[in-house]
Design brief:
With about 575 residues, the chain is α/β, with parallel strands linked by helices. It folds into 3 domains: about 130 residues, Response regulator (Rossmann fold, 3-Layer(aba) Sandwich), CATH 3.40.50.2300; about 140 residues, Alpha-Beta Plaits (2-Layer Sandwich), CATH 3.30.70; about 250 residues, TIM Barrel. It has 21 helices and 20 strands. Strands 11-12-14-15-16-17-18-19 form an 8-stranded mixed beta barrel, surrounded by 4 helices. Strands 2-1-3-4-5 form a 5-stranded parallel sheet, sandwiched between helices. It is elongated, with a radius of gyration of 33 Å. It starts with 11 loop residues before the first strand and ends in a 9-residue tail after the last helix. The protein binds ligand C2E and magnesium ion (2 copies). The site of one magnesium ion (MG) has 4 residues, from strand 16.
Length: about 575
């Protein structure tokens, strides 16, 4: 790092200090690479700066001086449009003075007593390089709305604080405004700007009281890098209260994610963590604060590991397809009518991993398509095998992810599977999660239309889990509704939940859609559903998802019932 600074041409550096000894030391050190100008107090400095502005590359400025001190010089330079880009490095022995100087626009500090010469030379060199680069890109240092640093400068300063003050325990805080775009849309941009300004004001007020810097890094996201606080709940309340006072008749919600200082962890990573934490409480108005903890760190490590292991897992066939039966409960005894294929990962070191862990992870980056395709292929092969063995064809549903739907070869891929295995289109049903529909992407609807046209049946998975409204159902290209588990969970205890289930069943009947109730675990739930007219049920009451050999036993029994070889008690 020391070697990385190459100064090609001699440049002027102004050294401002009332102590002759300090001027001499710095002059000696920097004289190797730069031409040096000297000033003994602020007034002399200002005069020189004005006269030689074009030749100056940097100013090293003592803060405590007679006649005019360093703060006044800083203020004067930063207030001057022509001069404000001149990098000023503050010389100080007083830690608490550093922050104030930084807030006033200093780019860096050199601590007294002075460090070894190479360090000083390197630092000054870096700053000059940076400031030249920065004039080139002519990026603004401050965001005009919030009067906080802009993103690039902020991270540059964070990195410097981290690098030069590794002992200082600084936490990363991310403050987000919930649904800011709606606030803008509903109340106008000007109001939105005022909201951002108000948050900026309160952050600056906070930073007067504590060591730290802040930025508005995105439209409605603020990053604060500051001394460890003891009570983040109170801090969040402080920002929220300020907003409430400002906008007393509009409700605006803030949320906060915090990642605490950890030895050696750089600010960029710390802010990634804080953002992860904040993302976890998105929309949670009851509990808008999340502190990044060991558990979340472990989860991130695990995610990373799973991403790395995916390819080997496919090659080594660590994935297995399980089958969970769906029963027709309007028949007596209830009869096996179909199944759902669900993926399982048997990891050689981590053991069984639930799809709840890896499916969302692989959905995030599109890798899920590889797994899905594996499941479809395996399922098609299995249906054909059972058909050969038992001359029955039990339809099996497979799950489709959003990424699959946007794959232009999807329709072709699925039809080939059907043909290659000698199946009919009714043998494989396709489950598409409800939330995919609510994006209402035209492409999704088009693909689903073409899949139905060639004969596939589409099941809407997780219906009611959060997004859809009942009235959009009528225009959706689907054949079956899979009612989300949460509806069934409480029907034995809650009259309202039961009424809701009945309502869904009524509407589905009206729209001529079949309904599968998911997550049925008890006899009580089963009989309420049966009495309400629900046909199909999937859940632990009948069976957990099973490996193919286990599931085959259910199939064999079903065939025996069909032939009248078994009575229903044996089911
Ligand atoms: P899903 O498609 O809604 O599948 C139903 C989930 O509910 C399964 O969880 C099943 O084991 C579980 N379940 C079934 N009956 C009961 C019950 O009575 N009580 C409770 N508590 N749970 C029950 P699983 O297998 O862990 O899968 C979770 C989710 O992962 C699935 O939800 C699906 O969204 C996704 N998934 C699983 N396999 C695949 C796959 O091959 N491809 C894709 N894209 N997603 C998959
Ligand atoms: Mg499903
Ligand atoms: Mg489901």
């Amino acid at each position: 790092m020391l070697q990385s600074v190459q100064i090609q041409r001699p440049e002027y550096v102004l050294v401002v200090d009332d102590q002759e000894l300090n001027r001499d030391i710095l002059g000696m050190i920097l004289g190797e690479k730069y031409r040096i100008l000297y000033a003994e107090n602020g007034q002399e400095a200002i005069t020189l700066i004005r006269a030689r502005a074009n030749e100056l590359s940097a100013v090293l400025l003592d803060l405590m001086m007679p006649v005019m001190d360093g703060y006044e010089v800083l203020a004067a330079v930063k207030a001057d449009e022509e001069l404000k880009h001149l990098p000023i490095i503050v010389l100080t022995a007083d830690k608490s003075a550093e922050l104030k100087a930084l807030q006033m626009g200093a780019v860096d500090f050199i601590a007294k007593p002075f460090d070894i010469p190479e360090v000083i030379l390197t630092r000054v060199g870096r700053i000059i390089e940076l400031s030249e680069g920065r004039q080139l890109i002519s990026a603004a240092e401050y965001d005009r709305l919030s009067m906080l640093y802009t993103r690039n400068f902020f991270f540059e300063y964070c990195n410097r604080l981290h690098l030069y003050h590794p002992e200082q325990k600084l936490d990363a805080i991310v403050l987000d405004i919930e649904m800011f775009h709606s606030i803008n849309a509903l109340n106008g941009r000007e109001f939105g700007d005022d909201v951002l300004r108000t948050v900026g004001d309160e952050i600056r007020a906070f930073l007067q009281e504590t060591f730290g810097i802040a930025s508005r890094v995105e439209a409605d996201r603020f990053d604060i890098y500051c001394e460890q606080q003891t009570d983040y709940r109170t801090l969040l309340r402080r920002f929220q209260d300020r907003l409430n006072r400002y906008a007393s008749n509009v409700s605006i919600h803030l949320r906060m994610g915090v990642a605490q200082w950890q030895e050696g962890t750089d600010p960029v990573l710390l802010f990634d963590r804080a953002r992860t934490a904040s993302g976890m409480v998105r929309g949670d108005f009851q509990n808008p604060l999340m502190i990044y903890d060991e558990e979340m760190r472990k989860r991130e490590l695990l995610n990373q590991r799973l991403l790395n292991d995916l390819r080997a897992a496919i090659e080594e066939r660590q994935f297995e397809v399980y089958y969970q039966p769906k029963y027709d409960i309007q028949r007596e005894p209830p009869r096996l009518s179909s199944a759902e294929a669900l993926i399982r990962w048997q990891h050689p070191e981590l053991g069984k991993i639930s799809p709840g862990v890896f499916v969302p992870l692989f959905e995030g980056n599109g890798l899920i398509s590889i797994l899905d395709s594996y499941v479809w292929t395996e399922t098609a092969r299995q249906i054909a095998e059972w058909h050969r063995k038992y001359q029955v064809k039990l339809p099996v549903s497979v799950n489709l992810s959003r990424a699959d739907v946007f794959d232009p070869t999807l329709v072709e891929h699925l039809s080939r599977l059907i043909q290659d295995n000698g199946l009919d289109y009714q043998d494989i049903k396709l489950e598409v999660t409800e939330s995919a529909y609510t994006d209402n992407a035209k492409q999704l609807l088009d693909v689903i239309h073409s899949l139905r046209k060639i004969g596939f049946q589409i099941e809407m998975d997780d219906f009611g889990a959060g997004y859809s409204s009942l009235n959009m159902l009528s225009s959706m290209p689907i054949d079956v509704l899979k009612m989300d588990m949460k509806f069934v969970r409480n029907i034995e205890k809650s009259e309202i939940d039961l009424r809701l289930v009945k309502l869904i069943l009524d509407i589905a009947k009206y729209l001529k859609l079949n309904v599968v109730a998911e997550g049925v675990e008890t006899e009580g739930q089963l009989s309420l559903l049966r009495d309400s007219g629900c046909n199909l049920v999937q859940g632990y009451f009948f069976s957990q998802p099973l490996p193919a050999e286990e599931f085959e036993k259910l199939l064999v029994r079903e065939i025996e019932i069909e032939k009248g070889l078994l009575n229903h008690d044996a089911v």
